[in-house]
Amino acid sequence: MTELIYDVAVLGAGPAGIASAISARRFGARVLLVEKYGMVGGMSTTGMLNVWCGDSKSKIFNEIVSKTTKTMPSGRRVFAPEVLKPLYIEMLENAGVETLLHTTVTGVSVENGVIKSVTAYNKSGEMQIKANTYIDCTGDGDVAYLAGVPFEMGRSDGLTQPVTVEFMIGGVDDSRAIYREAHVDDKLKAKMQEYLKDGKIPFPVGMIILLESLEPNVAYCNMTNVIGIDGTNAFELTKAEFEARKQIPKIIEFLRNEVQGYENCVAISSSVYAGVRESRRFKGGYTLTPSDIQGARTFDDWLVYGADYCFGVHNPNGKVENISEKPQETGGTYTIPYGCFTPVGVKNLMLAGRCISGDHYAHSSYRVMPICFAMGEGVGTSVAYAIKNNKVATELTLEDIKNVQNLIK
Questions:
Q1: Which helix (H) or strand (E) is 351 found in, with range?
Q2: Which one-letter DSSP state was computed for residue 171?
Q3: Domain 2-153+279-309+335-408 in CATH: superfamily?
Q4: With a threshold of 0.85, does the pTM exceed it?
Q5: Where are the domains of the chain?
Q6: Do residues 41 and 17 touch, judged by C-beta distance below 8 A?
C-alpha cells in the first residue's frame, strides 16, 4: 500500500476544498488535495452550475470573480465553467498544492478520537494518507461519516432538497431569450402547470430556471428535479441520474414550444453528475440556526464573514409552492463561527462546505458556492495556523481565532 504523508489532507476539491487547500498552502503547510472526479471545482465545473448564488468576503473567491465573472442585466453573476477549470489549476499549482484526482476515500482509521490515516483507492491501488490534520470538503461529509461523527439528514421528516442535473442549451436567441423574467410571468407558469397536468412534462419538474451565459447563443438550465433521494445512497443516486436525464428532452420540448428565444434550442451538454443540494450535516461545537442568519449575528469566533444568501429551499415535496415553516428572509450579511467547523469526537478533523454543523434551514443559506469558498479559506487558514503554532486545529482559543481572522480579512 502506498503511504502519503502531509501536514494537511483536504478531501474533496469543490469550492470549499480548493479554498482550504490554497489557503493552508499559502500559510506554509504541505497540502494534499484529493478529488474523486477528474477535475477540481465541483458544481462550478463538473456540476455545470454557472452562476454565483449569494456572496462572501472570501479573498480567494473575490480573486476568482475578478478574473472570470460578468454581472448580467438580471443581476446574476455568471461565469463559463470551462474558463474556471484552467484558472483553478493555475491557482493550485502557483500555491504549491499537490493534487490527486480520480481518487475515492474508502476508510478512516481512528484511535482515541484521533484520525491516524485515511484510506483511498484509485487505479494505482490502495493508498494510506497520513496527515497532522484532515479537512472534510466532500460535501456529503464522507470522512466525518467514516470517522463516526454524528449527523442529521434533511428536515424534521427526513426529506432533503431535490437533486438536479444541470445542462447547457444551444441555439438560443440572445436578443429575445427569457431569463429571470420567467419567474414572474404568470402566463408561462400556467403553461408549465398545463404541461404537468397533461403529462407532457414529468413531475416534479415545475420551476422555470434559465441562466444567462457568457458563451454566445447559450443558456444554462436548472430545471431537472428528482425528489426523495438520499444523496449518500449509490442506488438512489443512480435513480436520480437516470430520472433527471430523462427529463431533459421534455424540458427542451417545453422551451421550444412555449418560451421566448428558445424556439430552436437544443441540449448540447450536461453535468458529469447530479448535483446534491443536501445530505449529511454533522454535529459540531456549534449548530448554526436560522435566527443566527436572520439576526445577521456576528460571532466573536467567526471563520466566515460577509456571508449573504436567502433561505434557498427547493421544496423537498417537489411542488412549486411556499413552504409554511420556511423562515423569513435574512437580515443582512452574517458570520459562521468556529464551532460549526469542528466535529464532535475527532480532534484532528475539520469540516468545510455544506456538511458543516447547521440545521436544515440554515443549511439552505450557507450551502452556496461563494460561502463555501469562505468556509474553505477560514478553515484552511486556521488549520495551517494551528500546525505552525503547535496547536490542535479543533482546540484553538478565541485569541488564536482572532489571529486567524486578521489573516483572512
A1: strand 349-351
A2: S
A3: FAD/NAD(P)-binding domain (3.50.50.60)
A4: yes
A5: 2-153+279-309+335-408, 163-276
A6: no
Q: Which helix (H) or strand (E) holds 31?
A: strand 31-34
Task: Please state, in angstroms and rounded to a whole number, the distance separating the CA atoms of residues 49 and 372.
Answer: 14
Secondary structure E strands in 54-158:
70-71, 77-78, 98-100, 104-111, 114-122, 125-136, 151-153
| Cell numbers found for residue 114 | 484521533
Question: Is residue 288 classed as helix, strand or coil in its secondary structure?
Answer: strand
SS3 call for 186: helix
pLDDT in tens, 271-286: 999 999 999 999 999 9
Q: Could you give the 3-state DSSP secondary structure of residue 32?
A: strand
DSSP state of 176: T
Contact between 363 and 154 (Cβ < 8 Å): no
Strands (E), 200-338: 210-211, 218-221, 266-270, 275-276, 280-282, 302-307, 334-337
How far out from the chain centre does Cα 29 lie?
Answer: 24
Helix (H) or strand (E) holding 371: helix 369-388
pLDDT tens readout for residues 365-390: 999 999 999 999 999 999 999 999 99
Rg (CA), the chain: 21
Tell me which amino acid residue 186 is: D
Helix (H) or strand (E) holding 164: strand 163-164
Identify the sign of the CA torsion 18, 22, 23, 28: positive
State how far the Cα of 222 lies from the Cα of 27, in Å rounded to an integer.
37
C-alpha cell at 314: 427547493
What angle do the packed helices 59-68 and 81-95 form, to 10 degrees? 130
Q: In angstroms, rounded to a whole number, what is the distance separating the alpha carbons of residues 374 and 11?
A: 17
Relative to beta strand 2-11, strand 31-34 is parallel
